[in-house]
């Protein structure tokens, strides 16, 4: 065991300083970046809770939703930008996948699927959109809407975008309500036999398109007819039909109650004749919980979200199935309090559970929605004209969940922890042992262990995180790791406050100052009666990781040198 400095002779302060200076110089010398290139190799499979390629390496789906199920039956935005330009922008924004929606009738109603794009727009009086299509995508204007859908898939595949084909609805139009006739098997527009025919046709149509890596069988099952027995009856039939038509694609099954609830799987597993292809999906928005995020205490609301998402969806990870959170999103203007508080919580959970996901939405504006021509979609990553990114800081924040923290093929370093700050999308790091801890890219995150004694210790060293005895001061690294100020409890309903105690027993929490320096401040928003407080700056998640970063690689290399210096400058350790 490392000897506490308090047990050393008075001559050791100089040695400690000399040791730290030498260690600092070594850190400056041994400082290299790690670049990992992952090439997806289709088809994809499942290996327990992970989606993997044919080489067995994890492929994390980091998708964006592209709407193509509306009344016009054409992927949105083609009146503003060429198909290939949109496909390329998806990759350039950091996504590797599109969840491309489709209405059932497009593939099962020949008279509907055979009308031209031009005629579909004329029928809805969208003459200005036709002019935009002619300018940006003249080759599709006189294609049938079915062939135009194929052209979009082909463009995505050509640009190396993976595709999940999502049967979003039966009758083309906006989704969803409990009484729209599209919600559950047996509804007015939801004939289960026709649905299976449609799934089979889609699976067959795109069998040769290897970038079509999965099919989501139905979006947001809902309504008064929904029941568990019919869910098993028809979802299993649909899965078998798709697999028979195209055994390469992943089969994605949604839950009940607008895809919030998979809890019935805890008692009764899905029974299929094949394996290695099954994925489950759920959805979650701030409005899933009404105005809870702005009306109630944010810590309490976050605790409720965590418990609900795990108990009704994320438990499938423990059962050995991948979880695809195929819809989540926020108002990109950043002014929606409900969305902002929700997303700080959601992003922490997304990093912790490291699940696959699809953001809602790519769409900057719609041809026609809710009777409004050119309706602006404020949840859209692109702006109204589909040219500029609506909120670049949001893309930076979600970049942390694009890269896997762990999984097959990512055992690059010993298991360790990183400390993630959801409000910024950054992780705790340090430039040196002599400078304050600060937030920075998670690819350069500090690697920690979180001991049973609740000390956060820098991996490969004897230094632990310690609260300064003055409020508002930077947290520091110390070799005194048994004091209360070096113990960090995970507190509050959100499980995202890291709390310690000062020498006078004052409770403090990790926080971030305006310069992104890690400091300690009084813990805030802990009272359930406080509904106006925003705890976002004090929310941190301790994440499991096996990914090598610049810091972990450096420390693994110098650990033997640290031991050598410790022996020479401190005597001995056990």
UniProtKB/TrEMBL annotation:
Pfam families: Cellulase (PF00150). GO terms for molecular function: hydrolase activity, hydrolyzing O-glycosyl compounds. The keyword Membrane applies. Residues 79-362 form the Glycoside hydrolase family domain. InterPro entries: GH (IPR017853), Glyco_hydro_5 (IPR001547), Ricin_B-like_lectins (IPR035992). Keywords: Glycosidase, Hydrolase, Membrane, Transmembrane, Transmembrane helix. It comes from the Eukaryota. SUPFAM superfamilies: (Trans)glycosidases, Ricin B-like lectins. The chain crosses the membrane at residues 12-30. One of its GO terms (biological process) is polysaccharide catabolic process. Belongs to the glycosyl hydrolase 5 (cellulase A) family. PANTHER family: CELLULASE FAMILY PROTEIN (AFU_ORTHOLOGUE AFUA_5G14560), OS04G0481200 PROTEIN. This is Glycoside hydrolase family 5 domain-containing protein. It comes from Solanum bulbocastanum. The lineage of its organism: Eukaryota, Viridiplantae, Streptophyta, Embryophyta, Tracheophyta.
